[in-house]
Amino acid sequence: MNELIWAIAIAVVLAGSLAYLLWKQRKEVKTEQMPKRSGPPPVLNTKQLQIQAYERLILLTDRIALPNLISRTNQPGTSAKDMQLLLTQIIKQEFEHNITQQIYVSAPAWDALRNLKEQNLLLVNQVAAILPAEASGGDLNKSLLELLMNNPKLSLDQVVSDALSFEAKKLF
Known about the structure:
7 helices
């Protein structure tokens, strides 16, 4: 009987030891699979967010540049008024779509972009206002492109794009 108790005791100790070793091994496997963290949880790098914002705003500058906008939206058969409305809507929508990017860029950079938007809206509206009532959308587009070709200083898009690019490069 004494031997039976010893055998049971040894079996219990061995089973307990084996259970403990299995538990410890599982715990180690789980901790190896978990991502290692040192300090607070990772946050997106502010510099990365700023660079992405400058990228998006340079793209916005290109998208609302009047020659590019006109080539994308040219719709034969539309009236000058309809084309005016379409161009101004797209400029406003593109700008509003990217408005949150202002928190990542400098105030002068954002002001330059806002000035580009306002200047393009002003040019579209002013040129449309001097066209005859029966003018077509093609007439408006042609007049806008001629105005920009004859007065290159009216086109701020390249200046704004260069300024945004310069600021972005300072982040590197």
